[in-house]
Structure formats: structure tokens, C-alpha cells
Amino acid sequence: MRVLMCDPLYYEIGWEDKEKNPHMKKDVQPDFAGKLTQWAKLVALYWQAGVDVEFISSASGLGDMVFAANAGWVYNDTFFASHMAPDERKPETSHYAWFMRLKEFNVVYSVVFDLLFEGQSDIITTPEAYLYCHGARNSREVPKMLGQAAELDRPMLTLDLVGTDFYHGDLALFFIRRTKKLLYCPHAFSAKSLGILESLDCDKRAVPPEFACPQTPRDLELNRNFPLNAVDLGSQIIVPWGLPKFCFPRGLYEWLSEDGVEVVFHDFSEFGKSGAGVKCATLVLEE
């Protein structure tokens, strides 16, 4: 497995827009030492699991560049570069596109098609289909653009996100390849989209919104993590979680760890201040 990450040197909460991300508050800034430590520990977990980690340098003034999964979507040797909804994030695209060209990827720009698109955070891969999560920060026509630019090996199904708490699909969906399990939050999707999810041939487990998305002042103080924004490493999954292990729902833990899957908890709460988890900080280049 090969991934791309960006250091959090300049990570900060630099903008607010409750329609695009209600979790970001400029008066709740990440702790400098805390963000560096949590990010470095995530890198160490990847290395320990045998993951090949590549790095792109952060840029001053681009406080969200650490969230590499938003930079684009990788399909074979093509990188579909994002065109992000927040104006503050649009300059990130040129940095990532330049890096991917250096790595000999073909780069397709979403902005050329006049479409909003925020990369892997919008698309969940399953054996049956690519699940495109449409919401306030992307365009409904993205699957058509991707299908025209690449011969996809499976259909791309559109799911509609409702509300703004789950502004990206990877906050509400997590698929485990080894065991074909889908963890999802029904609260995040329209009724039609829930029907699509239920039709998928995989083992499913629904979780309540208060588990998937911390909202109460007590939740935000004790565990500002988004556990569905996890990373699947094959035999191991890394789950954002800041409380002791015994606080994690026991039945869910047992379900996730079936067939020898190791569940690793990692506190990523400094990035939870931006409504993000470990997947947001990880652009998968090759599984």
C-alpha cells in the first residue's frame, strides 16, 4: 500500500462556513505540539504496518493542505485533481497536481469541467461499485466526468448527503476490504441513498450520529474524533478514537475485528477540530 501525506506545520483553523464545515471554529485552534505529535504517530503506525508513505511539503497560508485525501482521486495512473468548494482551499490543487506530475501520474483538472470535487473524501470504494457522496461541497455531475475521462472497472453510484455535519462521505462511510464490511451512519444519507447502501452485497452495521460525529460540549471536550473516518490497511484498520479502549462499543469492536482484522485506535483530536480524521490526512495512491 502506498499513500501520500502532507505535514501539518501550517495547519490551523483559518476560515469558518457552517454550510461547508460546521465543525470549524476559528476560536478553537489546534495545539502546535499536539498536531505534530498526532500526525507523526499516524505516520509511524503506517510505517509499522509496512505502508509506503510519500510526503508533500505544506505551504504557508494553506492551513488545510494537511488533509491530503481532499486533493484528488487516484484511478490507476490518473490523478483527478480537486476543485474545492471553499475559496481558501482552491490554491492547494496546484501544489498537489505538480507533485503528482513529478510522480508520473496523468493529471485531470476538475476545474476544467467547471465542477466542484474534493477527491477521495467523496468516493468510497467497494468491490461492487464506487460510492460517490454528493453534498454541499461537490457537483452531482462528477461521476459523469470521471466516467468519460477513464474506463472505470465498476459502476459509480451516487449517494446524497443530507445536512452539513457529514460534509464528506468518508465521515459517514467506512468499508473494510478484507471482511467486506460496511460501517455507516444512516443519519447522513437520503432515504433513496440508504436503499442503495442496503442493496450492496456486504455485511453492514449502522451507527448513530452521536457516535460518528461528536456534537455535544462534553463529546467535543472528551473525544473530538470521527471514528468512521478510518483507514483500512488490509489486516489492520486505524480508527480515530481518543478515549480508553473500553469506552468503544464492545459489540462494534468485535464486529470490526472479525477474521483477524486488528483494530488500532489513534487519537487524532487536534484534526477533529477541523471535522477530520485519519482518512482525511491520507491520500491512497495504491492499495
CATH fold-level label:
L-arginine/glycine Amidinotransferase, Chain A
Question: Number of helix segments?
Answer: 8
Q: Using the alpha-carbon principal axes, give the shape.
A: globular
List low-confidence stretches: none
Strand content: 15-25%
- Label the CATH architecture: 5-stranded Propeller
Specify the CATH class: Alpha Beta
Structural class: alpha/beta
**In which order are the strands of the major sheet placed?**
2-1-15
Q: How many structurally independent domains?
A: 1
CATH superfamily: L-arginine/glycine Amidinotransferase, Chain A
The largest β sheet comes out as:
3 strands, mixed
What string, H for helix and E for strand, traces the elements in order?
A: EHEEEHEEEHEEEHEHHEEHEHE
Give the tally of β-strands.
Answer: 15
Produce the secondary structure layout.
Blueprint: E1 2-6, H1 32-48, E2 52-56, E3 72-75, E4 78-81, H2 92-102, E5 106-109, E6 123-125, E7 130-134, H3 142-149, E8 156-160, E9 173-176, E10 181-184, H4 191-199, E11 203-206, H5 209-212, H6 217-222, E12 231-232, E13 236-240, H7 250-256, E14 262-266, H8 269-272, E15 283-286
Parallel strand pairs: 1-2, 4-5, 7-8, 10-11, 13-14
Antiparallel strand pairs: 1-15, 3-4, 6-7, 9-10, 12-13
Describe this structure in words.
It is built from eight helices and 15 strands. The protein is α/β, with parallel strands linked by helices. It has one domain: L-arginine/glycine Amidinotransferase, Chain A. Strands 2-1-15 form a three-stranded mixed β-sheet, with helices on both faces. Strands 3-4-5 form a three-stranded mixed β-sheet, covered by helices on one side. The longest helix has 17 residues. The termini are close together.
